[in-house]
Amino acid sequence: MYFCLVQKSILENINLPQDLRLLNSEDLPHLAKELREFIINIVATKEGHLGASLGVVELTIALHYVFNTPEDLLIWDVGHQAYGHKILTGRKDVFHTNRQLGGISGFPKRSESEFDTFGVGHSSTSISAALGMAIASRLKGENKHHIAVIGDASIASGMAFEGLNHAGVTDANLLVILNDNAIGIDPSVGALKQYLTNVKKGTQKRNNIIEALNFDYSGPIDGHDLNKMISELERLKTLKGPKLLHIVTTKGKGLKQAEADQVKYHAPGKFNSVTGELVAKSTSKLPPKYQDVFGHTIVELAKQNEKIIGITPAMPTGSSLKYMMDEIPERAFDVGIAEQHAVTLAAGMATQGLIPFCNIYSTFLQRAFDQIIHDVALQNLPVIFCLDRAGLVGEDGATHHGVFDISYLNCIPNLIIFAPRNEMELRNIMYTAQLGLDGPIAIRYPRGRGAILNWKRPFTKIEIGKAAQLKKGKQLAVLSIGTIAKNVTEAIANLEVSHYDMRFVKPLDETLLHSIFKTHDTIITIEDNVIKSGFGSAILEFSATHNYKNSIKVLGIPDGFIEHGSINELQQIIGIDPISLQQFINNLL
To answer: How many domains does the structure of the chain reveal?
Structure first.
């Protein structure tokens, strides 16, 4: 895409919202065109979340035009859609660093800008946060506006309803903008989605659910009509109490391919900014993504075992449960952005003899911690948790790294924790789990591709709690968990040290550990989880319990939040890449 040569660029003179407010309203549609082109041109080469930001260009302009940000507080939900917001709030010149090591975050972040009033990354937080700010403003005697933007997929989450329910009995100066584009990352699902569809079509005859919660409801209006948007926002500024504006937008607006394939262009990778066509990747045969190993394996197993069920909270494409939804739709469920519900739904199914595979990203499973304890583990129900995106995930940064799951799961009784080192291990543990376990199991695996092309081999049952020796050496033993074993293998290729893939964090292979501690002076543990309360801590507990005096070195994610960058870059910074590991081990030797 190219800027219009007839009309002078407006965007180049807009650095902050106060510059935007100096414009005449008739200039805003051209600014919207330029802002879209700016986003497209940079994301085409730098990658990132495209469709959501294109869909809210007019909304972003209207909000900063009408409200006195940052004095008036604007809170985005999730943050996929905040690129235009960042560009208009002082970060235009550094937007090309988006999601890169040392660059700006791909999500709103309080430490980055005063215009980012609340840090986000997970969904459905904006209403609660904005309500908290609104109540605080009232208590402090401040007169300001509080605007929460939330999508039709996110508003179906339980947390969003909790916020609406509370807000409806307050006099808080809160405006909720419902950005209704009928899609999150995948198409929205559920009864609320159908309700909103009926509202847009004018066929909804029942009482308005938003008004029933004591909100002043307006809409739906066209979210790409700047005049209507500005007029309605100006009107809503004069109203007291909780309000909700329902706008209808198109995800990917302004790029033909992004509008046509909204799932693929949510985060499309590199593409041609003029034609919109995706940049072709290498045609050489690559190992599969771990998510696809899961997706194809569950279909294969489900065809043999009619008790198998697949569950995902709004991530059928990202988790690859879409394969089962296509082939066996009656036994595969997308429950929407509802991790807590997904876990307890799986628990209910397990009480009736079904075998639920509950696939949730590691970082999102944090939201269902109580349900794992109370509804699954306490009742010792054989739910199979598949934790996609475990470990460092790269450019999405601190909100999305799956580096806490070992720590927050290891304290839960009855729960088996397994991390495959490769694709076949993932395949075989899924096979083993569906044969029947006495309780729940969590299987954690990373984002990205493995290393084995010929991974679809006959199933082999894995013995629960049994580790594997990968290399025998002297003096020093390295204990790894999961796919970080690949880095270890490269690091010690020319060193005489032992390497053990422990496979299970819980239960540990204590028989093997006794042997390791008796035959090696130094033990190194390596994981892509936080060091605090992680795999290494479990080995330290074992050592202390049995009064071993070996030297133990624990490597993993340090006690802090890791920012964004490529996985390789982040591993180097942390010191768990092959070269860093080799240097560390050499120094010990």
So the answer is: 3
